[in-house]
Structure formats: structure tokens, C-alpha cells
Amino acid sequence: MTCTAESEQGEHWFKISDYSIHRGMGVGCYIESSWFTIGGHYWRLHYYPDGYSEDGKGDMVVGLELMELCGKEFPSRVSSTISLFYWATKRFSLSSSVAMSANLRDLSHFVTHNINRGKMEASEYIVDDRLTIKCIVTIIKEPYVFEAEAQVPVPPSEITDQLGKLPEAKEGADVTFEVQGEEFPAHKLVLVVRSPVFKAMLYGPMMEKDSSRIVIANMQPVVFKFLLYFIYNDSLPDDDDDLLDGDDKKKVTRHLLVAADRYGMERLKLMCEIILCKHLDAESVATTLALANQHTRSGLQDACIRFIASSSTKMLDDVVASGGYKSSQKNLFRYHNGDVGKSK
């Protein structure tokens, strides 16, 4: 007999701009996050800059509220952890964990996390008047017992790892791409399965005269390297690989989105779009918006517009001063003058 319990975990980031302006709202006053889904239920965060009550007005408080049960019973056990992004180490720390009782039967389940404001403000948790909060919610379901059967363990699939090693090994490579003087060996069968454009280039009406050697124009070698990595791995390199720093990563991701569009790779386009949405800033938002307009990426367009509409006056000045502003100046002017709603 084996007793086990299933759990489900998810996280939500809540970014607070203009931290100093929000201070002074008053005890019990809060700012709400958007709703998010974990475990099939809807949740949201409450940010209390001046504390939740008079007893704890020296603390910054984050509340977690269960908004809707979605027709399901309240989970038997729920725990939540609030942590703050520490700019010095680029990691989340200064955390607080609280359990939510399953005995609460009202329609609004609510718990609060107290963070020492003095310790938070004395350290590098607030930089450029910005604070980033991460909430992790863990839902632990009722344990259950079952008869354990003797099974032969099946190892995880290795096909992705094996395919990913093919370009480095160069075994069986039957086509070489030349990109600004750099050579990249590859395998035709892998390329035609992954991209309709490569299929046309290698076996269709776009077939090159010498299909064993192809020159790629208007692309940087590093971008083509990432494109091949995705073709063989169906993913992009992990952030832990430190192949690029932050600014170079955003620049390469923009070029990679263009390459994905060029070779008809929709999944890669969506992945690039998600990365760019997560790393918008005053320096890059204008360039990113111009790219989104050019390649009709509506999700990325909306993210850029929301970023601009919710920006402070200082950040808007930084956007105007950025290198990519002129190329999309007309769009930015239209959005800034009422075509999108501004944050409250």
C-alpha cells in the first residue's frame, strides 16, 4: 500500500512602479493585481504600501485573495509564499509563507503577508523606485492510498538531447549554411520537417542549384545559431547558459522573431514574443513596438501599448529619448493621446 498526495504550484509576479508615490496612501489602502489562475481557481494580490492595520503599519503587506472557486470545493490545504526581487543578487528573497485554512467557508478567502519595511527599504529591493513581488501558491490535494504494483522503470525520452547534439557532432550533415563567413552544418531532413520554407529551399520550387551549400543573407551568425538550436531542440537555450547579457538577449530575440517569420516557424515566433513581452523597458519598447507592427504580432503590440500607457512621466521621457523612438513615433503619439486607456 502506498499513501501519496498530489500538489499543484504556480506563481504570479506583481511589479510596483513609483513605489515612493504609493507610500502615504494610508493604512488599509491597497492596490490590486490582475486576476491569475492556479489550480483551476482565480486569485489576486493586494498590495498595502502603508500596512494592513494599525497594529502592523510599520510593515509593507501583501494579501492573497481567492476570487472564484470555479465550481470546485475549496482545496484542503493551500500555502502561499511572498518574496521580493533583490537587485544585488538578481534573485528573490526576504520571503514570507502563510497557510490558508480550508475551514473558511465564506466566499472570499484571504491571507496577508507582512514584510518588514525598514529592512526592505534599507537593502536593494527597491531600485529606480520599482519593487517586484512574487507570489507562489501551492495547492495540496487530499492524500490517497493505492496498491503499488511492481513496475520496470522507463527512462525519460532522450530523443531531444540526441537531436540537439547532431549539429555539434556534424555526423551525417548534408548541407552547410554560410552566414557572414561562418559555417553551420545541418541535416536536410531535420530542416524540412521543422520549416516549410527550408523544405521549399531544399526540395521544392525554391530549391537552390547547389543544395549542399547555401548562403544566408541579411542575418547575423548568432541569430542563425539560435535558429538552428531551436530547430534541433524545440526550445531556446536556458537563461543559466549566460550566452548573452540582458541587452544583447533582447536584441537577438528581436532578430530571431524576424528569422522565425522568414522561415515560417510559428512556435518560435510565439516564444520570442513572450520573451520580449517580459523584458520591456523604456530603452527597448519603441523598437519592439515597431517590430510588432511590422510583423503583425498583436500580443506584443498590446504589451508595448500597455507598458507605454502605464508609464510615469519620467519613463515616457526615457522612451522618447531612446534610439528606437523615431522609427515608431507616429504610433507612440497616437497611443499616448488617447487610443489606449491609461492606468489609474
Automatic annotation (TrEMBL):
Residues 173-240 form the BTB domain. PROSITE patterns: BTB, MATH. One of its GO terms (biological process) is protein ubiquitination. Pathway: Protein modification; protein ubiquitination. InterPro entries: BACK_BPM_SPOP, BPM1-6, BTB/POZ_dom, MATH/TRAF_dom, SKP1/BTB/POZ_sf, TRAF-like. It comes from the Eukaryota. Residues 9-137 form the MATH domain. Belongs to the Tdpoz family. This is BTB domain-containing protein. It comes from Triticum aestivum (Wheat).
